[in-house]
C-alpha cells in the first residue's frame, strides 16, 4: 500500500535528513560551528567505492544550520595521492585544522604479475594484502583561516613515531609504511588538544591499537611549523587488549570532569565495544574491557561499526551504537548489523560514565545500508546528528526532550498517557472479559502500536494466551508465554504476520514483571522492554538481536539501488476488541496507538502496578 503523503515524515528515517554534497562515495561528515554561526563540514568523498582511486578530502559550508550546503572545496586534489578520513579542529582564533591520512610517498599498486606488490619511494617493494591505499602513508594537516573557503597550500606532517606494532609486522608489510587512520574528533581539554587515531600492525586493518597525538600549543600558535606534538600513551604499545583479537580500531576519546581523566571507546569483533580510562591525561590507560551500562552491569552490544561517544556542552554524554551482538560489518541476510542505530545518554558518577537504556534514533529503508561515522553538532541549544551510509551523508535534528529523558531516566516514574487507547487495571483483567479499543494504525503507512502489561505468571509453559484481539481468526495481535522464560507477541494482517519474543529468561515464574512490546512500522522493528531494560539478546551468542525486523525492502548491496520490495504487514487490528483470559496472571494492560520511547516505557515501569 503506498504511503500516505499527508502523514508527517519520520525524523528517525535517514532519508528525511538534509543531504550533504558529495561526488559518489562519502564518509565521515564532521562539522564545526564558526563564531558567526556558519557550519563547516569536512568529509571524505570519491567517484568510486570506498578505497578506490580518486578518494579525497573536502570541505562544504552551510549558513542555515545544514538546510543547504555550498559546493565542495577540495582540501586535497581528487587526482593526487589518496587523502582520507579528515577530522576538523576549530581554534579560538577561528582557524580550522583538517587532520587526515595522506598517501604521500606514495605506496601504489604495481602492474601485471606484480600487481599485489606496492612500491614506496626510495625503499624496496612492499607486499600488501589488498589494493586499498587509504589507510597508510603520512598523518598530515592543513588549515583554513576563512571558514573553510580556502586551504593552506602546504601540508604539515604529524611526527608519528615507530612503535612495536610497526616492528612486529610480517613480510607482508614493510615497517617503514605507517598503517593508520582516525575517525575521532580532536579533544580539547585543559588547554591541550588530543587527536585519537588507530595504528595497525598489518594491512588491511589488522592488529589495531589506539594512540593520541597531543599538542599543548596548537590553540594559540599561528605558525604551523612551531606546533609541538607528543604521541601518547607512553611506551611501545597503544590502547588494546590482547584478549579482544585483531580488530581493535576506531578509537575515540572524551574528557571526564576530572582535570586529567579521559574515556576511550573503540570497536571490536567481539560483539561489544571496548573502553578504557586514563587518569593522567593519556600517558597510561586502564586495560580495555567491554563497555557496560554501568560498572558491573550488562554489556552494551554493538558490531564492528564505529561506536562514537560525545561530551555535550552541558557536561553529559551521548553514545551512538547499534545495540546488537553481531560481530562483523553486516549480516549475510537483512537486517544489516548497522541498521538500526540507537543512542544512549551518559552521566558521570565518581569518575565513571553510567549509560541510559537506548533510544532508536536512525534507520534506513534499504536493509543493505546502515548509518555510521556520525558527528554531533550543537548550535544555539539544538542538537543535530550527521552520518553516512557510504553513498549519502545527511544531517538530522534531534528531539531535545528525548535526550533529556535519557539523561534523567533513573528519575522517571510517570505513566505516559499520550496515545492511550485502552487501560485495564487488575480487577478488569481478572474478570476475563473482552474490551473494545477501536483500531490500530497500519504498519505499512507506517504506524505503530505498543502493548505494555504487568504479569505474574503461575507457570512458564509456552503458548499460554495472555492477550488476544484475533477473535479466533488469523488477523490481529496476540501475546503469549514464549520459550525459555519469555513473553511473545504475534501480529498478523490476515495475509502475513510476524512473531517476536523477549530475551530468554527475562520473565520468571511467580515474579511480577512489566513487559512493553513496541511494534514500530517506521523502521519495521518489534522491540521489547522488560522491567525497564531494552532486550538486546543478552550476553549469549545464540541471540544476536533483542529486536526483530519485519516487512523490509531487500536491496542487492550497499551501492546498488536495485531492490525487491518485501510484502509489508498492514492492518493488524483484528476484531478491535482485546480479550484477557480470566485469572490473576495479567495484572494490568495499556494499549497505545503509537510507539513508546524506551524512556516512556521505563517511566510506566517505575510508576508501578
Structure, explained:
This protein is mostly beta strands. The protein has a domain at 420-607: Jelly Rolls (Sandwich), CATH 2.60.120.200. Helix content is 4%, strand content 38%. The protein is built from 4 helices and 44 strands. Strands 30, 32, 37, 38, 39, 40 and 44 form a 7-stranded antiparallel β-sheet that branches. The longest helix has 10 residues, at 598-607. The protein is elongated, with a radius of gyration of 26 Å. Mean pLDDT is 90; it is low at 109-130.
Secondary structure tally: strands:
44
Q: Which class of one domain in CATH terms?
A: Mainly Beta
CATH architecture of one domain: Sandwich
Q: What is the CA-based Rg, rounded?
A: 26 Å
| SS field, number of helical segments | 4
Helix fraction by DSSP (H/I, runs of at least 4): under 10%
Terminal residue distance = 39 Å
Overall average pLDDT: 90
Stretches with pLDDT under 50, minimum 5 residues? 109-130
Topology (elements, then pairings):
Layout: E1 18-19, E2 25-33, E3 39-46, E4 56-62, E5 73-74, E6 83-90, E7 96-102, E8 108-109, E9 117-119, E10 126-127, E11 138-144, E12 156-157, H1 164-167, E13 180-181, E14 187-189, E15 192-202, E16 206-215, E17 230-232, E18 248-255, E19 262-268, E20 274-278, E21 289-290, E22 308-311, E23 317-321, E24 341-349, E25 352-355, E26 359-362, E27 372-379, E28 382-388, E29 393-398, H2 400-407, E30 420-424, H3 426-430, E31 434-436, E32 448-456, E33 465-468, E34 476-482, E35 486-492, E36 497-501, E37 512-520, E38 525-530, E39 533-534, E40 548-549, E41 553-555, E42 563-565, E43 577-579, E44 586-592, H4 598-607
Antiparallel strand pairs: 1-29, 2-3, 3-4, 4-5, 6-7, 7-11, 8-9, 9-10, 11-12, 13-15, 14-15, 15-16, 16-17, 18-19, 19-20, 20-21, 22-23, 23-24, 24-25, 24-26, 27-28, 28-29, 30-44, 31-43, 32-37, 32-44, 33-34, 34-35, 35-36, 37-38, 38-39, 38-40, 41-42
